[in-house]
Queue: 3 jobs
Job 1
Amino acid sequence: MTRFLSKVLLTAGGWLFGLIVFFPILWMGLTAMKTEAQAVTTPPLLFFQPDWTNLWTMLTSAEYLHSAMNSVIVALGSTAICLILAIPGAYSMAFYPGKRTKDILLWMLSTKMMPAVAVLVPIYLIVRNLGLLDTIAALLLVHVMANLPIAVWMLFTSFKEIPRDIIEAARMDGATPLQQMTVVLLPLAGPGIASTALLSIILSWNETFWSINLTSTDASPLAAFIAAFSSPQGLFWARLSSASLLAIAPILVLGWLTQRRLVPGLTFGAVK
């Protein structure tokens, strides 16, 4: 009976925790289906006639579609560049370590400990002097710099779990380092690479700080588009919720579709 009660309590606790985590998204979805007047009523309306005007307006808005396309280009582009740079780097550090390999890894990780606002002025000046303000290229550059340390660390951990004997056998068979990496290593490290790519896409898609400070109209992604609904006159809660709901929907769907590959990839190498 004690074991049964423990299972019931654990199950109830899990559902409660899941509800707490999901509640902001649920509330945002409800607010998106309200009018602006209904969204600011006190106490909040729990039962109302759904109004799809705001969602439809966002979906048919040229500005929203433009920002969504920018987000797709930046997220996928920065992820591809990250993988192109991180895979050889993680491969060399995992299978050809040097005396300073651990120091380099720690230094790369330490770059994530500094708040982005601390380097806002120098990066803004560099981007401005290069003539890259409000361009996709600027966002790609910044997102790659921000996500590359995490990508290298995740891939390094994944590669370290692959038996070195397999790489040695390929080397004895005459495989070049490039063949060892592309033909032997990459298929074995598929889950780790997939999870790294998914995490990079999510981080890039949700990035807000640089999107607001380095773009205005031409290259503004969804994060900047959503921030535009905040004005000195106040917040437009219904429209803000509609834009936010449409912005997170692709990531929610992507995470749900790839969760079986994402979880093993994130935990790959955690337990020996």
Job 2
Amino acid sequence: MSGGPPDPGIEADALSAPFGGLTPDRILDVLEAHGLVCDGRLLALNSYENRVYQVGLEDETPCVVKFYRPGRWSDAAILEEHRFVGQLAEREIPAVPPLEFPGQGTLLHAGRERFSVFPRQGGHAPELDDPETLTRLGRFIARIHGVGAMEDFRHRPTLDAETFGMRSRAFLLDNRIIPADLEPVYRGVVDQALEGVAHCYRRAGQVRALRLHGDCHGGNVLWTDAGPHFVDFDDTRMGPAIQDLWMLLSGDPESMAAQWAAIREGYEDFRDFDLRELHLIEALRTLRLIHYSAWIARRWHDPAFPMAFPFFDNPRYWEDRILELREQIAVMDEPAIL
């Protein structure tokens, strides 16, 4: 998911070809210049927003290196992420902070590249249909939120209807991303969907924003015999606690209600949950759907995106998005899960 506004100090060519010079040789040279003795093994890991690699090291366990997309986050915003994850690890909450290099910190620079090095963490996807797994996840997420509530981010945005909804709508429509014959229909539907989002927020009332994981779905949780490890805090930002919980729910309303009961059981072992936030589940889902399309559109200049999303400029894609938003408009009128 996309971050904040582009850093004005980033050169235009870095935005149009953000990873153009990041060849295997360049990666290994950069790492060795910072004292890592690589053995030549380099495995690209799944990441569209940044570039992430598992790198083999001589006589050591392989590490994971993340090269940050130019213009997405400022250095200060990245360091806020690192500080947050470090605070979690200090309290034995299973998050994976970047390694600190003496005299250089956790965010390293090499030319226009900015990168961090992480210890490799193994694991597999959690079994989200298992109530015990959901309860354990609830406990750990509550502990994450306990730390998240200790202070606010200063350099990262808040997840709300403006940042994820209105700005995404404006980007798609102002840049004529939607096919011309579908644009009037999409405009009407997205406006109606955002009205539904606003109604959900009114029902919820004033809820507290805190530091979140921000993208807490099953793919960002690695499960081991010892339990979960939370990875990829790249989307961390301020927002309501339910943002880190609703993506663990799936299926029909009855299934989601049962899943929520298991999560809440664990969550409230460590932290009270404001039940008013349940009114935001479908609103946040709607915002994510709108934001996702705008994210692809914003990144279309990156050669990796047309290859990964070849369907994006097909009218069928936008027909499906219109149908999806219409379904969300109806769901947002229904009572929240209890």
Job 3
Amino acid sequence: MRKPPTPKRAGRVRPPRRGAAWSILASTALVTAAGVAAASSFSTQLAEEFDTNRETVQTGIDHTTEAFEDGEMNILVLGSDARDGEAQEDQRSDTMMLVHIPETRDEMYVMSIMRDLWVEIPEVGMSKVNSAQSHGGYPLTIQTVEGLTGADIDHMVIVDFDGFSDLTTALGGVEIENDMAFSAGQANPSYYPEGTIRLEGTDALRFVRERKAFTDGDYQRVKNQQKFLTGIATQVLDSSTLTNPSKISDMVSAFTPYLTVDESLDAQTLVNYGMSMSKMRASGITSFTIPNAGTGTTQGGASVVWPDEEELENMRSAMENGSMDEYVKELEKRQEEQADGATDETGENVTEEPGVDAPQ
């Protein structure tokens, strides 16, 4: 794994205008999937619009080694609770996803990282993964995720909340399969019935950010985010979108002003990626949550999510040797078996809060 330079306290680099995590889902699809469309549909004017309206930030990523040079590309996608004028060291990353694209370039693995995951932060020690940014800005966040996953991160994307509604509108809504009915929002709440639903605007935002409606909180929220990401990717990669320059233009125009990316991710780079990933389809996108051993409390009293070190090592090996498909299938199988074994005689699940004590 690449060893980045020792992190320093980040300067007051301009953050996204109003950081919010939930719209990172859209950026994952837009930066990768719309790159496919870019190869054939980005006009010069649209490329200039992207480069002009995006925000860039220093990340500490070594761009002397190009993405895919080592056979894969990894993109860290995140949102933060930044506010206008707030320095990187005053922020915390709220939601984090690692997008892994293997050498074949026709598959994509989107790994959600629980924000309370208890990890080693370089030169800081053990802490929640989302606190890395408050200790050392984006460079330290990248170092921490690289240490956790074993991935060499090639690009980083941060998204501002306000662009999210506009993107779902530009797509004409996003269709997903909702596995449980719930309501979200205090004023004029949105209701989401079980089954196939179409999300757009405020309803989409509430769907991906809600956690208090669920007994397992962030766990179900992450599942809903993954469902929504799949829906967005399906919409973006649909032939009716890829062959519609007007629709692509609407997407880019709606969302680009709310993107913050590393300094090397410009329109031409997206076009190049799009050309190399022309075989990418929604069916090739797999979402899962980075292995963990449930929730618990540290000796200091912090509520955290414990990492599953054995499974994390298996995941790192799978990324390195290109066997992610087999790994994810085995992971899902084991998780289903664990869920079946954690059901008591009444048929009620008894694993809402696994792991109440710190591991020995």
